[in-house]
Amino acid sequence: MLNVKSTKEFCSEIERYAKDFKLSYIEAIVDYCEDNDLDVEAVSKMVSSNMIEKIQYEAENLNMMPRTSTPLPL
């Protein structure tokens, strides 16, 4: 059972989990779900739009999905 009451609390927990264990957000969510015997699909509704953007950015940089915008040249 998920002990988090709101999306904000869940995202804060994932942020802390990612920082403490030096994981990407994707890895942090998967590990958190495994450690707490949760289904990843069950917690998908708890992910905020801000965290979705962070996950999308990670996935694009890892070539797990096509880039939605081109980076500016430096």
- Count of strand segments: 0
Provide mean pLDDT, rounded: 87
Please give the share of residues in helix.
55-70%
The percent range for strand residues is: under 5%
Structural class: mainly alpha
Radius of gyration: 13 Å
Global outline? elongated
Distance separating the two termini:
47 Å
Number of DSSP helical runs: 4
Largest sheet: none
Weakly predicted, low-confidence segments: none
Order of helices and strands: HHHH
Any chance you could write out the topology, listing elements then pairs?
Blueprint: H1 7-21, H2 25-35, H3 40-43, H4 49-61
Helix pairs in contact: 1-2
Short description, anyone?
The protein is mainly alpha-helical and 74 residues long.
Textual characterization of the structure:
This protein is mainly α. It is 58% helix and 0% strand. The protein is built from four helices and no strands. The protein has helices spanning 7-21, 25-35, 40-43, 49-61.
